[in-house]
Amino acid sequence: MNAEAQIKRGRKFDQVIEGARAVFMREGFEGASVDEIARDAGVSKATLYSYFPDKQHLFLEVLRQECDAQSEVEVLFEHTGLSVEEKLCVICKKLITFFLSDFGQDMFRVCVAEAKRFPELGTTFYESGPKHWGERIAGFLRSDKARAVLDIEDPYLAADQLAQLCRTDLMLKVMFGIETNPKEDEIDRIVDEAVRTFLARYRR
Predict the structure, then answer these.
(1) Cβ contacts of residue 44 below 8 Å, gap of 6+?
(2) pLDDT at position 118
(3) Bridge-partner residues for 203, per DSSP?
(4) Residue 159: what pLDDT?
(5) What are phi and psi of 12, to 5 degrees?
(6) pLDDT along the chain (204 residues), means of 10
(7) Rounded alpha-carbon distances, angstroms, from residue 192 to 80, 117, 186, 188
(8) Burial of 150 (0-12, 13-18, 19+ CB in 10 A)
(9) Which domains occur in the chain, in start order?
(10) What pLDDT is recorded for position 10?
(11) What is the DSSP string of 63-120?
(12) Which of 15, 107, 171, 194 could form a disulfide with 165 if both were Cys (CB 3.0 to 4.6 A apart)?
């Protein structure tokens, strides 16, 4: 089922999205009701259903928009004047910050919980987040500037390896509530080690 084909824009579309975002972030996917979303959005249920056929499609659109807003991938890759090592540090810092963010954590939990009953949710999260990140990182690794420093045969595999180096025990501690306020120096230490390990494998 193509969710995009079922969505139409209109005067109150953004209002519906804002209300849905607030409710989903507060109640989660299962806990959110269409009635509550309509109340928070300040619209009628009829108006909400005129844009979205059901709660699932509404959540998918919120997810797409949040991934786009949170990842800031395009802005990240516009950094100029940085060395390859510095650019890798920027990439890793942004990845870790996203993994540890309330949004990143909430969406991961929801997608895992709903994956079997709502597989399109996991696909959308993957394509809007991890896949998009991977493609942009792989594109950087294929650039002339990166290739002058790095010897990489498979940029997509290397991009995934870099991301995996950022998914440390700290991510699990935050997810399980063991660590609630990660210190900046701990994040920077993970960034440094991830980049050093990556360079040890791929530097010419």
Answers:
(1) 38
(2) 80
(3) 150
(4) 96
(5) -105, 15
(6) 52 92 83 93 94 88 76 59 91 89 80 78 81 90 95 97 94 90 94 97 96
(7) 20, 39, 10, 6
(8) buried
(9) 4-66 (1.10.10.60), 72-202 (1.10.357.10)
(10) 67
(11) HHHHHHHHH-HHHHTT--S--HHHHHHHHHHHHHHHHHSHHHHHHHHHHHHHTTT-HH
(12) 194
Residues 6+ apart with CB under 8 A from 202: 150, 151, 152, 158
CA dihedral 120, 127, 160, 115 (to 10 degrees): -10
Query: Which of 61, 44, 25 lies closest to 34, judged by CA?
Result: 44
The owner of tokens 């890759």 is 77
Q: Which residue has the tokens 């009628």?
A: 44
User: What pLDDT is attached to residue 72?
Assistant: 55
**Residue 169 phi, psi (nearest 5):** -60, -25
Q: Which two tokens stand for residue 172?
A: 């699990």
CA-derived radius of gyration, the chain: 19
Q: What's the pLDDT at 48?
A: 94
This prediction's pTM: 0.78
Q: State the maximum Cα–Cα separation within the chain, in Å, rounded to a whole number.
A: 61
